[in-house]
Design brief:
Strand content: 15-25%
Distance between the termini: 24 Å
Largest sheet: 8 strands, mixed
Helix content: 25-40%
CATH topology of one domain: Rossmann fold
Structural class: alpha/beta
Shape: elongated
Number of helices: 10
Order of helices and strands: HEHEHEEHEHHHEHHHEE
Length: 287
């Protein structure tokens, strides 16, 4: 989940991202994988794979044996992802994918498209590396105002870190209409395009801990950690106060909106070109 103009993480942030972003992403990850309808022997590409939240679950969730490849622009995120050697990890940009035409049967992209500096080109690149008959499944967040936790977080960032720091937290919600998604897929000459909105509840036991942990997994982590102890506590309290209406006896229970797109590349299935995907990546990710 990163690209040149987007969610760039370094230092300890990728590890924090894995711990805290997983709580935000996990209600959606398995749905994305199931939407792709993976089959035994498929070659699957996870674009903007980040630390591997999706790639690591493809075989487990689909109950199929796929060869899995992940690609991300951010080397720091890939350092964490490479802890799983069963997947072929690549460093590279979504707008210049380093794979031959028609290499993959499935292309997945969770919360990545909105970050790419050229969304149109990225979508066309993902379509290019799909084999005829291949499936694409991706998701992006709905509009910011439909995510109360992030509304409160952006407000705190503006108040304590300044207006410039909030841009990285607004960008995830910047591709938020069915029309935009559909046009990108149509321009990439994909067919059977379906856009589906889903609403779920994100839960976390303690709001304050989620705020502190999640801020350590953002591009604003260094600025947040540079605050004095008093100002950091005030930052967290600012979010806690504004999200209080979404706390029950079990902790935070806050709504989220996600937009899923699935599409097909027309044509008959054919033999794939040679690729560098290793046979070891045919193993289930949890082996």
């Amino acid at each position: 989940m990163s690209e040149t103009s987007g969610w760039q993480l370094s230092g300890d942030a990728p590890a924090a991202y894995t711990r805290f972003a997983l709580k935000i992403m996990e209600p959606w990850t398995d749905d994305l994988i199931l939407a792709a309808e993976c089959r035994d022997g498929d070659h699957v590409l996870d674009v903007a794979c980040g630390t591997g939240l999706v790639a690591n679950r493809v075989n487990l969730v689909s109950r199929k044996f796929s060869a899995i490849t992940g690609i991300d622009i951010n080397e720091g995120m890939l350092t964490t992802a490479r802890r799983n050697p069963q997947i072929a990890w690549h460093q590279g940009s979504a707008i210049e994918l380093p794979f031959a035409d028609g290499t993959f049967d499935v292309v997945l992209c969770q919360q990545g498209l909105q970050y790419f500096p050229d969304r149109d080109k990225a979508m066309k690149e993902m379509a290019r590396v799909l084999a005829p008959g291949g499936r694409m499944a991706l998701n992006v967040w709905g509009a910011l105002e439909r995510h109360p936790f992030f509304v409160a977080l952006v407000d705190a960032i503006t108040t304590f870190l300044g207006a410039d720091a909030k841009s990285a937290l607004e960008l995830p919600f910047s591709l938020n209409t069915a029309e935009e998604l559909r046009k990108l897929a149509q321009d990439a000459r994909l067919r059977n395009i379906r856009v589906r909105f889903e609403h779920r509840t994100m839960r976390y036991p303690t709001v304050a801990r989620l705020v502190t942990g999640f801020m350590g997994a953002t591009p604003a982590a260094a600025q947040f950690l540079a605050l004095s102890d008093d100002h950091r506590q005030a930052f967290v309290a600012h979010v806690v106060e504004r999200i209080a209406d979404y706390v029950d006896d079990a902790g935070l229970a806050v709504p989220q909106e996600n937009h899923f797109l699935t599409a097909l590349k027309l044509g008959c299935r054919r033999d794939r070109p040679d690729s560098s995907i290793s046979s070891s990546s045919m193993l289930p990710a949890d082996w």
